[in-house]
Amino acid sequence: MTSQRTGTVARALRRSPLGLAGGVLLVLLAGFCFLGPLIYPTNQTDVDLVNAALPPGPGYPLGTDTNGFDVLGRLMAGGQVSLQIGLLAAIFATTIGTLYGAVAGLAGGVVDGFLMRLVDVMLSVPFLFFVLILSARFHANALSLSLVIGGFSWLVSARLVRGEVLTLRVREFVLAAKVMGASRTRLILTHLIPNALGVIIVNITFQVADAVLVVAALGFLGFGLTYPTADWGSQLASGVTYISADYWWLIYPVGGCIVLTVLALNLLADALRDAIGRRAD
């Protein structure tokens, strides 16, 4: 059933021009970030003040920043970190949210009500405020930042999966599994989560986009990753500092990368959601 649904969704997705555009754009951006350094290697560790703040020209296609780092190479390095954190945070958040929502949806009654009231309370907490506090309190690296963002992002996943499980738990195949003596763990892992996979995949795509924006916001506010690790947010913050000097190559390329990445992920997620919705209908 799951493989048939996946095939149907893939065919529907191929008929979505915007979804295809988002997918192609995302592949191109990932290739630029992860394969680009193999074709265009740069030194992103040693400061070179002699070649600082050079405009785009021969040897430096996008110029250099105020520390002498090649901006094109910096974009690739920052994109790697931003995408890695986004993916790790999305996987972490979706894993927790999926299990939590599935348990709540299957249990129902008082247990479901209690678990979802906890989610409502946590959703009322300002997300970025607490992430800023934790980032300032602890040394931020890619893994810790992924865990912090994922640890506050699973709530939406839990509500989505719980709603899907509420509709699945009364289906014939779930009731038949219960009659045959399947445990709650088996019901969740074998029957409910696999059949809620479409919603989960769509949610992961949105979660990656949200995490990329959070990483950029933290870096822009000065609470992101520290030297020598680069991220798009800190690059943008550095460029805005020199906006009055007309160092446009420090602002527009990195801003464009953030916008295009989030746009590609949202286009792909919207197409997946529409395809899954048509399949459900």
UniProtKB/TrEMBL annotation:
GO terms for biological process: transmembrane transport. CDD domains: TM_PBP2. GO terms for cellular component: plasma membrane. Gene3D superfamilies: MetI-like. Keywords: Cell membrane, Membrane, Transmembrane, Transmembrane helix, Transport. Residues 79-269 form the ABC transmembrane type-1 domain. It is found in: Cell membrane. It holds the Pfam family BPD_transp_1. The chain crosses the membrane at residues 20-40, 85-107, 114-136, 196-227, 247-269. It is a multi-pass membrane protein. Coiled coil: none annotated. The keyword Transmembrane applies. Belongs to the binding-protein-dependent transport system permease family. This is Peptide/nickel transport system permease protein. The lineage of its organism: Bacteria, Bacillati, Actinomycetota, Actinomycetes, Streptosporangiales.
